[in-house]
Design a protein that fits this description.
alpha/beta, 6-stranded mixed β-sheet, two-stranded antiparallel sheet, 13 helices, 8 strands, globular
Length: 314
Amino acid sequence: MTPQTGPAPTATPLESVPSPRRGGTSRTPATAPPRYAALGDSLTFGIGDPVDGGAWRGWAALLGAALGGEDGTPFRNFAVSGALTRDVEERQTPDALAFAPDIASIVVGVNDTLRCAFDIQDLAPRIDRICAALAAQGTVLLTACLPDPGAMLGLPAPLARPLARRQRAVNAVVHALATRYDTVHLHLADTAWVADRTLWSADRLHPGERGHRLIAAGFHAALTARGFALGPPPAPDPDRAPPTRAESLRWLATSGTGWVARRCRDLLPELLRLAGDEVTHWARGSGARLDLKAEHALSMALAALAATPAGQGN
């Protein structure tokens, strides 16, 4: 199963999307290896794809290695585990601009959905400004929509539904910006992709090696169609065996417990509040109000994007 490409699940194929980039002129693919910068959080950092020495590799590194052929490609991974959209805008983007990449991936947003301060009307212009700053240099952008963490973790409905609303909102914003900047886009929220547990690591939130390889291959194929990929695609077969059930349980009992403890300081009170609201509204038969509230906030965010020149959102 290969991740879908295109700016929205119901859109036409990537090559036929009539969405010219604003804010900059696309660079013409050259014969020299393209410069590639990766921005984002733990997904782009490589969590879930361990290599020798206790380091992480991930899809961005696999893609970078596959873009340059025998000459290699100048590649910088600016992603940081736990990064929020604010971190990508304020800390990673200036460094990426200084690197002057031909290609830049911007995959972020899940961590924002796990924070009590989540605000789609703040997140949307931030991602827009990130995209605009890089597009103004003529950089070709890579984006992806992502599965919601509640579904990935198998949380009960009162906890999963609020997170699903938030991730749907993030994905809708990313889809809008994918059209606005003519990005190379992967649908990593596709149901078949999410349901295939062989693609995911023991933590159930990050891809395993096979998943990282499929993401890299999906972006490589789309970039090849645009004339960028100079090397062969990443090999689909993992170098390592997937984690056993015992290894997964051991991770959950050690590193996984630490992850939950760190997130609980910020997330747990908000999740409990969201779950309380969810249960109360559904008991009253007014659960649709929560959906309408989220849809209204998203509509306001998308309207503000549409009414604002690229990259100039507040």
